[in-house]
């Protein structure tokens, strides 16, 4: 293939890709929406397929068994499907008890996110947490307000809440007409079209295709919606045009504005418009920052970065799957690459690509795609692989844990095994740990409580470590950094008893209360107490 032909193909492949995650609080409708997307994409034939997967995922014992039967431990972490001219890579950001550091880290591998909000409940805690990460990375967010078939909160109130709690301008693209039993459909504010919600009762009574409304003042609108609903819509639209901001694509791409769509996922209403707008507006893979320079996806040389490791739950097979996002060039089966951290060459023989229903050997893949690489510990989170140049991608951070447990060994002679086990689990990103400067104990840190169970289980089965785990009263841990060495020294002295080191030996502080943390920030203005540490 000639160089220019290859360059054109690469450009086309990059332009077609949308790599994204769905962020939401449990039960807002993420799974339902995913399923409808896959149906539209033709990746699954019937509803229920994703549900079944989810059920097994949450019943942990079943899950482990299923995984053991399959030999490797990958559920629906990544799904690839096509829609129109686009190739979509949807990355799972688990909620519930599965919520963990991985959930955050996955967001470093996406180019944009879709936020699902339950119209009855509004913005909930998990969404806020995930949004913090999106904002940190300036990830563009599109919003879907779901469950309009139920009596929910006022749409204007919901938009206000998004702005207040999430700190992002919310720009409605569609507007709901009524809700709950009175829900009639949405008005497309951009194209001036009405789309009717079809229920079992009113089926066939209204046009299925979008109806263009040239003039909101026309009597036609009263006829279509009834006078009350028509007047409400007129008032709302007038209010919006006065108060709202116009949609600005650049502001969306910069993560400053979120376009908002209304609908009902379970009724498949508003989903196709959402998906159409998503592929139209969401960004294709972008340039990514490496230590030495920015790397554009259209560069012909291959590069990729590992952002997630999933270990096998089966102790007989110690292999792990490293998830790599392709950042530039073309991936080919069996290609030889440079492993930047180990300064070694390696061959990528058995890469896997994950589809909605199954997985397959990856013959080729392009920027934005995610491939799974089975390995025995050679690949770690943050590792960069390239076809030639020595590169190191940035931006796979550690997030400060929010839950803490102390490890108490049942047999003190096993401390070597504990140390080794924890070091490896921390490298995988399964758990974080800290050691007080003044003591020899290990304090585990997690973002989701399930991480503790998994760590305890794996320490026992894989490393023969029997231990008990005690909760510790810690409000927060913060890494401490400063260019002002004197202040840093003073901080270390003052907080000697709460000074700890993380797995890589970086200094951090435990704070027992929020007040103590705020006091420290006030007292030492030149010291950064950060909750994010770049790898
Ligand atoms: P997830 O936890 O975010 O993945 O949420 P699910 O997709 O599992 O949905 C949670 C519940 O809400 C399920 O019982 C769905 O059937 C229901 N649900 C999803 N979308 C809608 C909707 O548009 N309207 C109503 N009434 N229920 C919905």
Automatic annotation (TrEMBL):
Residues reported in the UniProt entry to bind GTP: 24-31, 92-96, 146-149
Pfam family, one: RF3_C
GO cellular component: cytosol
UniProt entry tagged with the keyword GTP-binding: yes
Location relative to the cell: Cytoplasm
Keywords: Cytoplasm, GTP-binding, Nucleotide-binding, Protein biosynthesis
Domain Tr-type G residue range list: 15-286
PANTHER family from the UniProt entry: PEPTIDE CHAIN RELEASE FACTOR RF3
Sequence similarity: Belongs to the TRAFAC class translation factor GTPase superfamily. Classic translation factor GTPase family. PrfC subfamily.
Function: Increases the formation of ribosomal termination complexes and stimulates activities of RF-1 and RF-2. It binds guanine nucleotides and has strong preference for UGA stop codons. It may interact directly with the ribosome. The stimulation of RF-1 and RF-2 is significantly reduced by GTP and GDP, but not by GMP.
Official protein name in the record: Peptide chain release factor 3
Species of provenance: Desulfohalobium retbaense (strain ATCC 49708 / DSM 5692 / JCM 16813 / HR100)
